[in-house]
Design goal:
Elements lengths: L1 H31 L7 H10 L1 H4 L2 E7 L2 E6 L2 H21 L6 E6 L16
Parallel strand pairs: 2-3
Antiparallel strand pairs: 1-2
Helix pairs in contact: 2-4
């Protein structure tokens, strides 16, 4: 009987956490459906990828099913490309317009324009 009590003591909080997680996910999805379909993937990115990845990336644009995400370096780009299918699956639970692809782009070094030329400092 004691063993059953211990199992229930572990199971019940876990079950409660699962229910809370499901409720939170439903709430986030409802909120994302209230914003513009073009903005939803940009707002959802930090939720989809988690705080550690969000600290080193930035969702730039979303158009025609393509989400462009800026990354800090080539190593992160490679890692995140491998995770893209997982991110797409989660992202599409939150957005009304389907995200078909995530493109990871390297951040431009400070002082350079996207084409690599010195940025105009006016």
């Amino acid at each position: 009987m004691l063993e059953l009590s211990l199992q229930l003591a572990v199971f019940l909080p876990m079950r409660s956490m699962e229910q809370a997680g499901a409720g939170l996910e439903k709430l986030v999805a409802q909120c994302m459906r209230q914003v513009s379909p073009a903005d939803a993937p940009l707002l959802a990115w930090p939720l989809v990828c988690g705080s550690a990845v969000a600290d080193r990336t930035r969702a730039l644009t979303f158009a025609q099913g393509l989400l462009r995400v800026e990354v800090t370096d080539a190593g992160w780009k490679s890692e995140l490309q491998a995770l893209a299918p997982r991110y797409l699956a989660v992202m599409n639970r939150y957005t009304t317009e389907q995200v078909k692809r995530i493109e990871f782009v390297l951040a431009c070094p400070r002082g350079l324009s996207p084409n690599g030329a010195p940025a105009d400092s006016r």
